[in-house]
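== Polypeptide entry ==
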Amino acid sequence: MVIQIRDDRHMRALTGLSQKQFDALLIEFTVVYEEGRWKAYEQGVAAGTRQRKPGAGQKGKLPTPADKLLFVLYYYKTYSTFDVLGTQFGMARSKAHENLHRLSPVLHETLVRLGVMPHREFATPEELKQALQGTDQLLIDVTERLYRRPQDDQVQREHYSGKKSVTR
């Protein structure tokens, strides 16, 4: 059982994409997915461990590339637990985990090929300036992380942020 999309608003709520964007992404996602399947098949044949061609065997709960893309985009939009994700797509939590970790690299490669994968790190300030050329606004999303304070008083002062501590 795969989630049935009723309209464009429903698609945006579940994936963050419009139906038109989803369809455009699906074309490249399908190409990347099929390339990966054939590459794995050829490696299995070369190693002598392959038993059947891609597409043979059981079809699973995500039979089409559209179902696979919807599954992985739904997870990244909602970040639900594998129990919930499995329930939504009619599979066990272990299969939801397995499918997500099998399909996430396919989505990543698709976004890289389309040139829409966001930058995560820059090696030099010049690389950052070049990436921002022609941009008039910059949004940075960060997460604060706990930092273990040094025991040495002098070193501790060097790392003091000026924020009040929050007891937990």
